[in-house]
Design brief:
Elements (H helix, E strand, L loop, with lengths): L1 H22 L3 E12 L2 E6 L6 E5 L2 E2 L8 H12 L3 E9 L5 E7 L2 E2 H7 L4 E2 L10 H9 L13 H8 L9
Parallel strand pairs: 3-6
Antiparallel strand pairs: 1-2, 1-5, 2-3, 4-8, 5-6, 6-7
């Protein structure tokens, strides 16, 4: 009898773990980019229908919109993806309710492309230089985008010193 309860317990734990794993699987869909908010945040409309979704590009940190280089970063991203169809791979949700996603456009990882163009930093976490460290090093070496200024302030440091950018007035 004891063995039966242990077996049932193991089966329930395995079932719960399987359900949890499937809940965390990537969501993949095609969408049209309808708005570019800044250099790492876009709104998309899934081609299959449904609500517009706000997405944060995974693995990068672009200048804040009120920071030097912020508007240029947004504009570069908009020229690349605004009104374009992209492949979306949502991997998580952030603290602001945005999907954290990888976007692919014409075979390119958009986040890697933004870092290569010098329009964003590879997102650092603890001691890691982030997923696009090589792209950032090359952009720095070639003095692209924000890296034209060797003393460019990272968005993380900017936010620590100034807080978030104020919301633009509704017009």
């Amino acid at each position: 009898m004891k063995v039966w309860w242990i077996g049932l317990g193991i089966a329930l734990v395995a079932l719960a773990a399987g359900a949890q794993d499937s809940a965390h699987q990537d969501e993949v869909y095609s969408a049209r980019v309808s708005r570019v908010f800044d250099g790492d945040t876009v709104w998309v409309k899934p081609l299959a229908g449904g609500k517009y979704r706000k997405l944060r590009l995974e693995g990068i940190d672009a200048p804040e919109i009120c920071q030097s280089g912020g508007e240029a970063s947004r504009d570069v991203l908009a020229r690349r993806v605004l009104n374009q169809v992209v492949e979306v791979h949502v991997r998580a949700q952030d603290d602001y309710g945005r999907g954290v996603a990888r976007l692919h456009h014409q075979g390119d990882d958009v986040a890697a492309w933004m870092v290569s163009a010098g329009q964003a930093w590879s997102y650092r976490w603890r001691r890691s230089l982030g997923p696009f460290a090589a792209e950032e090093a090359l952009a720095r070496e070639r003095r692209r985008g924000v890296f034209k200024d060797a003393a460019a302030e990272s968005p993380r440091d900017f936010r620590k010193r100034h807080g978030p950018c104020p919301m633009p007035p509704r017009g």
